[in-house]
Amino acid sequence: MGVPEGDDTAPLQTSTGDDGQPFVQGICPTGWAVPSLDDYTELVSFVGDVALLKTATDGYWLPGMGGTLPNYEFEVRAGGRYNSALNRYEDLMTRYCAWTSDFASGINIATGVNITYYCDSSFAVQANEADRRSVRCIRKVAP
Fold this sequence. Notes:
This protein has one helix spanning about 35-45, and strands spanning about 15, 20-25, 30-35, 80-85, 90, 95-100, 110-115, 120-130, 140. With about 140 residues, it is mainly β. The relative contact order is 0.21.
C-alpha cells in the first residue's frame, strides 16, 4: 500500500484522480487505486442497488443468491475470506470480502467491505490484517 512493511503508523502515499480527489494507488497499476469506503458508497449510489453489482454469472454465488443484470463493469463475486483466528476459509459463495484503502486505528487491523448474499447493502468492517480478503482496483485516472 506504499508504506514500509510492518509500519502501521506511516501515512499512505496518495495520487490525485480525475475528480481532483486523492487516492491510494497501493498495489494497483498506474491510474488505478485500491477503493476507499467512499468509493464503494459512491458506486452503490450510482447503480442504485447492490444486487446490480453482484455477478449474475452462475458459480460465484449460491444458486439464487447472485445478482441481476445489468452489471456495471464491476462484478462482485462471493470469494469468501480466510479467518486467521479460526485458521479456516469461510463464506465461499455467500460473501464478497475486500480490503479498502481506508486507515484503521489499531495495530494489525485493516478496513474492509462486505457484501453478503442475504443483504443487498455493503458494510464496512474492521478486521485482522492476517485475514485474507480480495483486493480490487478501480480506475481513478482516464487512460
